[in-house]
Amino acid sequence: MNSKTADTRPVTPEDRELARKVEEQAALEADLANRELRSANLRAELAAFERQYLHFVGSRYAELDEWKARIAERLVCEQPGNERARQSAREARARADETKTVAGEKSEQEPRSFQASPELKRLYRDVARRVHPDLTSDRDDRVKRQQLMADANHAYERGDESRLEKILTAYEHSPEAFHGEGPGAELIRVIRRVSQVRGRLAEIEAELQGLLRSDLYQLKIRVDEAEKTGHNVLQDMIAKVDEQIELAKKRLDEPAPLPR
Questions:
Q1: Cα 159 from Cα 162, distance rounded (Å)
Q2: Could you say which of 92, 127, 213, 219 would form a disulfide bridge with 69 (CB–CB 3.0 to 4.6 Å)?
């Protein structure tokens, strides 16, 4: 009886506004999921490219800076009273240490570029649409979602489909995933969600623009465009640095000049 009465009650302006807002929310959440995917994909591609760059080029720059530091330190030994040479040696050593730290240890395995499968993209989009922290107003739920999204981003970068599935399944069956219905309060909740999603859309657009303007992205574009014409930019950089390394080695091997 109550159900029948509820079904036949007249549609109110609030009902129409709620339906419109729910539709708007769904569209915005779909847009957010797509943009989150684009951002995650770009971050993963840049991280993989950076590993490749450091493996092939960065490690060579570290070696070159090490040889330059040794040359500068040798000059100090040859001219112990030359304060300018001593300062140059300190700077060269600091630069060599910094470059070595940035380049890190060169791994035996060659880093691979990032290629996401259609299934990986689908799973990440599903996680973003269901778990994203900007889709809730509950503080505790938001904290949990933030942790899950960080986990999802790492899983996506690793290409770990099973981990994304576990994240989604775990949240779907959590107590936080269940919310009671209330016609009066639902419109307010939807309006707040729409506002939250719009805010996140603005944030992620700024993040994307920052990535697209980065030096790393610009270098990746150069490399990718050159590869289309059969030109390997990284190989050219490697050859150039290798040549500089050989010159530095020869310079260090040269006998010290005789004292005057």
A1: 9
A2: 92
